[in-house]
Amino acid sequence: MLLEHEVAVAFAAGFFSFIAVSLLLGWLHLVDHESVPSRLGAVRFFTTAFLFLPMALVEEFLFRWLAIGQLSRITGLIPAFLFSIVAFVVAHRPNGRLRFTTILNLAIVSVILGLVFLQWGLWVVAAAHAGWNLAEWGLGYAVSGQKTRAVLPSPARREVKDEPFGPEGHAVATVVLLLVLAVLLTTARLHL
Questions:
Q1: What is the DSSP track for 10-71?
Q2: Burial tier of 184 (Cβ tally within 10 Å: 0-12, 13-18, 19+)
Q3: What is the per-residue burial (b if ≥16 Cβ within 10 Å, else e) of 138-148?
Q4: The pTM is what?
Q5: Do 113 and 64 contact (CB within 8 A), yes or no?
Q6: Burial class, 166, CB count within 10 angstroms (exposed 0-12 / middle 13-18 / buried 19+)
Q7: What is the DSSP letter of 160?
């Protein structure tokens, strides 16, 4: 499969995985939505949307390429993989209060992204990460916690009821992420 195709599929997988989280949260009436969306001009909207790929690329460079790809040469794959999970969760701590479900979801996301990195590489894992973040932002949620809202203002404002971290801290996200992980484990030919 061509790299461009893999990147596109990964981006769509990340994007539609978050759409599934959002739809389930809405169906369960767990979302507060501000009826008047904040106004972002077209230039600011597209500039912010464009930033998600380089931002995801930086995160994936640190937590997958460096922590798994390079550290595994020294420590072996399992310790490097576990280090990347812990580092990913800890790095998201400043974004908001981490409850057990939030930590669990960040760990599951880190496992998914680690497996995607091992199978398809840096560009593909960055695309999957960017797709998730773009869908989350585009639908009006704060990306990875409420504290990021000031840096990345959304075109609308949605908040998950009683969840200070946002959708990624809710059990609905746990269910979707576990399904994504199951699909990944059963369909990918992982080279571990």
A1: HHHHHHHHHHHHHHHHHHTT-EEE-SSPPP--HHHHHHHHHHHHHHHHHHHIIIIIIIIIIT
A2: middle
A3: bbbbbbbbbeb
A4: 0.90
A5: yes
A6: buried
A7: E
pLDDT tens profile 18-76:
999 999 999 999 998 765 555 667 777 777 778 888 999 999 999 999 999 999 999 99
Using CA atoms, how far apart are residues 26 and 102, in angstroms rounded to an integer? 19
What's the pLDDT tens digit per position in 59-70? 999 999 999 999
What tens digit of pLDDT does each residue of 94-126 get? Answer: 877 789 999 999 999 999 999 999 999 999 999
Length of the chain: 192
